[in-house]
Amino acid sequence: MSDTDRQVVVRFAPSPTGYLHIGGARTAIFNWLYAKKHKGKFILRIEDTDAERSTRDSIQGIMDGLEWLGLSWDEGPDFQSENIQTHLRAAEQLIASGHAYKCFCSKEEIDAKREAARKARQTYSYDRTCRRLTPEEVKEREDRGLPFAVRLKVPEGDGAVRFDDAVYGSIEKKHADLDDFIIVRSNGRPLYILSNAVDDINDRVTHIIRGQDGLANTPKQILLYQALGAPLPVFAHMSLTLDPKKAKISKRRHGEMVAVHFYREKGFLPWAFVNFLVLLGWATTDSREIFTKEELIK
Ligand code: GLU
């Protein structure tokens, strides 16, 4: 089966650190509609690797909110925290294939270099000391039991990561502007950027439809896909849900009205609320305001 014949697989991947936000609900709606239109699969993945901030109440609240809106998922909830060994295996695979390396630089060394860059008014980026270690030097450090982080090798030279975002269009990020970023911390924990990409690869997600705040991670994630030899998904970053002054909506500034449960408690009809959310940032040429489910899917 070629990539173009692959079944459409999308996912909604909330971090369960609070209630279901209306911006999150809007992202979930577009994923759900896209899956329905293409007879694809909609996965609910709870990105709970931040153990301190993730709560059971939040997970329950997010699922209740999605159910209330009528956004049923075909697979899940999957919990990212259960896949940590898989994320670490991907990092080992990247080291073995020469796409990543162990970095033994201590926090103190890095902090000193960062401070020196700050004093010289330069932007700090990792100087790739450990990328240049010989196999013998690596072995010597391993034998001493030195802790290490794992960094991805960003290609050197003039190249760039290029991709076409389905919403934002053609995007380019020069390799020279990307650091050899950390994918596993020296305490052995994978970084979120790795976990997120590895889960999407293993779930065979074909279309990553997420908030615009994910766009900054995308070039790095594309490098991870390429290094792991995985086919690239389509990326579609949705504009954020803003207030009339174009500020990001947040509970701190706007209160309960940013939460889906607020509308539920006020007696809004769920489909009317979905209908309202899809029309934020989108309209038909004849400015229609009311749609049936089938029409929205189409
Ligand atoms: N867990 C991320 C969030 O809640 C989602 C990132 C993604 O969809 O790739 O913002």
Please provide a written account of the structure.
- This protein is of the alpha/beta class.
- It has a 3-stranded parallel beta sheet.
- Helix 7 links the parallel strand 9 and strand 10.
- Helix 3 crosses helix 6 and helix 6 packs across helix 7.
- The longest helix has 16 residues.
- The mean pLDDT is 95.
- It binds glutamic acid.
Side-by-side strand order of the widest sheet: 1-2-3
Query: Ligands in the structure?
Result: glutamic acid
H and E order: EHEHEHEHHEEEEHEHEHHHH
The fraction of residues in strands falls at 15-25%
Structural class: alpha/beta
Number of strands: 10
Termini gap: 26 Å
Instruction: Give the radius of gyration.
Output: 21 Å
Averaged pLDDT, please? 95
Uncertain residue ranges: none
What is the percent of helical residues?
A: 25-40%
| Overall geometric form | elongated
Contiguous helical run count: 11
Topology:
Blueprint: E1 9-12, H1 22-37, E2 41-46, H2 56-69, E3 75-79, H3 84-96, E4 100-103, H4 107-119, H5 135-143, E5 149-152, E6 160-165, E7 169-174, E8 182-184, H6 192-202, E9 207-211, H7 218-227, E10 234-238, H8 251-254, H9 260-265, H10 270-278, H11 293-297
Parallel strand pairs: 1-2, 2-3, 9-10
Antiparallel strand pairs: 4-5, 5-8, 6-7
This protein binds glutamic acid (GLU).
Give a quick rundown of the structure.
The protein has helices spanning 22-37, 56-69, 84-96, 107-119, 135-143, 192-202, 218-227, 251-254, 260-265, 270-278, 293-297; strands spanning 9-12, 41-46, 75-79, 100-103, 149-152, 160-165, 169-174, 182-184, 207-211, 234-238.
